[in-house]
Each structure stands twice: as structure tokens, then as C-alpha cells.
Write a structure and sequence with these properties.
about 270 residues; alpha/beta; Rossmann fold; six-stranded parallel β-sheet; 11 helices; about 45% helix; globular; binds D-glutamic acid
């Protein structure tokens, strides 16, 4: 593994581009290879076994592209497949998930406070956030709710409008969340509605977005292990397993700049 090898990032689709964007901003010299498994989107409603099978195939692609680190930019895949991928690629690439850096952040900054969590059904049903938090803070107080309508809502462009406000207040108005101090955005699509969520709480609850926390964690890892790239070395690549113009049109919203998606024939 060399310093100039790329960073692999994958997600079920384009939501993980919020993580890629934060990494690109923080570590502009790193070359990124992104893989969005748009053929199998959404992962949030798939079984853990299916997500594991998809994740292993994608990890093979990213390893064959020479990635020094692979970031699972998806909470659903992080909850279902992280341990498996870690063993699978042990000597080939370091695997980073989006859950552990958030758990570290919450244990450090919100210990003793009631914290909320929203995410896909897969992420919430896995109970992984609570298990990991309890391994750090024995009396961790986490209240979680699956919010499956938020991903299609965001992908259909319903944000900062009446529909998004209604859906958000339907979910967050649930009384289980009445005394939370902060809310973990446990899905890589949700940074796009972070400000709407904070507005819902009139700024009284802090929405915790993992994209920046994961980018900082990655920087720390690369620096400590002397694996950071010193010079920009080549163009970023963005692969999808199923290409449609509408996915490409959405990328700007998630990545913040125009990018070109290339179809990668992984499942044919
Ligand atoms: N971005 C995925 C996550 O963080 C959710 C999208 C999906 O369900 O595939 O869980």
C-alpha cells in the first residue's frame, strides 16, 4: 500500500456522496474511488445477508483498484457488513465504517444525556449503535426510530418544502424523542436535511452528521499511519452499478459539484 493509492468509498447509491464530499473537502490531495450500488438500492430494506454479499463484491472491486483504505459510507452496510469486511480484507485494505467514529463522538460529547437516532430499518433493527455505545458508556441512553420515508423523500427532491416538513414532524414528533439533547443522523442521506431537522427543534437539539466526523477520523488514521497523500495524484472516479441520468442529476446535490458517473458492470 502506498501513500498515493486511492481511498475507496461505497454506499448503496448516491447518499454516501455526502461522506465523499466531506472527505474531498478535508483531504483534497487524496484520490477517491466511489462505488454506488444503485442496482441494489435501497440497502435499508434488505436482509443483512444480502447486504453482506453486495458489500464483499464491491470491496473486491475497490481492492483491485488498489485502495489503501475503504470507507463504508452507508449506515446500513456498516451495521450489516463491517465485521465481515474487516476480516475479509484484513491484509489488503483498512476498512472504516460510519458508525464507530460517531459512537466515539457521542460518548465523548453527550455522555449522560439522552440521545436520539434515526436511520433505515436495517440500521435501527441491528441495534448496533446502542451495543457500541454501551461498550463505551455503561448507562448510555439511546432512543431510536426507523424513518424509512426520508431516503425516497430526499431522492425525489422533497426538501425545505411542505412535504418534507410534514414527514419530518411526523417522525420527530414521536413522544419518544421529547427529551433528547441531540439526534444522530444515522443515514448518509440525512445531512441534506440537517438544517430542516434543527429547525424543527428550533435549534434546541443538535443534529449529528457523521460525514465530517468520519472525514476527521480518516484524516487521523492516515496521518498516524503515515499513509496520507502529499500531492493530488489523478482524478476521482465515481462508479455506479446501474446508471440512469436521474442518478447523475442528483449527484450535484449530494457531492456539491458536478461529477460524472461511470457504469461498472458488476452484476451482469
Ligand atoms: N445511505 C444509506 C445509509 O446510510 C441508506 C440508503 C439505503 O437504504 O440504501 O443507510
Amino acid at each position: 500500500m502506498g501513500n498515493n493509492d486511492p481511498i475507496g468509498i461505497f454506499d448503496s447509491g448516491i447518499g454516501g456522496l455526502t461522506v465523499a464530499r466531506a472527505i474531498h473537502k478535508r483531504l483534497p490531495a487524496e484520490r477517491l474511488i466511489y462505488f454506488g450500488d444503485t442496482a441494489h438500492l435501497p440497502y435499508g430494506d434488505k436482509s443483512a445477508a444480502a447486504i453482506q454479499a453486495y458489500s464483499v463484491k464491491i470491496t473486491d472491486v475497490l481492492i483491485s483498484e488498489g485502495c489503501k483504505v475503504i470507507v463504508i459510507a452507508c449506515n446500513s452496510a456498516s451495521s450489516a457488513a463491517y465485521e465481515l469486511l474487516r476480516e475479509y480484507s484484513a491484509s489488503k485494505a483498512k476498512i472504516i465504517n460510519v458508525i464507530d467514529p460517531m459512537v466515539d463522538y457521542v460518548s465523548e460529547h453527550f455522555s449522560g444525556k439522552k440521545v436520539g437516532l434515526i436511520g433505515t430499518r436495517q440500521t435501527i433493527q441491528s441495534n448496533i449503535y446502542l451495543q457500541k455505545l454501551q461498550s463505551k458508556v455503561s448507562d448510555a441512553d439511546l432512543i431510536s426510530l426507523a424513518t424509512p420515508l426520508l431516503v425516497p423523500m430526499i431522492e425525489e427532491g422533497f426538501m425545505h418544502d411542505k412535504i418534507s416538513r410534514d414527514i419530518i414532524s411526523e417522525y420527530l414528533g414521536n413522544k419518544i424523542f421529547s427529551t433528547i439533547s441531540s439526534l444522530i443522523l444515522g443515514c448518509t442521506h440525512y445531512p441534506l436535511i440537517k438544517d430542516e431537522i434543527e429547525d424543527y427543534y428550533s435549534g434546541k437539539v443538535k443534529a449529528l452528521d457523521s460525514s465530517r466526523i468520519v472525514a476527521a477520523h480518516l484524516q487521523d488514521y492516515l496521518t498516524k499511519n503515515h499513509m496520507d497523500s502529499k500531492i493530488q495524484n489523478g482524478k476521482n472516479k465515481f462508479y455506479v452499478s446501474d446508471y440512469t441520468p436521474s442518478f447523475e442529476a442528483l449527484t450535484r446535490m449530494f457531492f456539491g459539484e458536478e461529477i460524472h458517473l461511470e457504469k461498472f458492470r458488476l452484476w451482469e
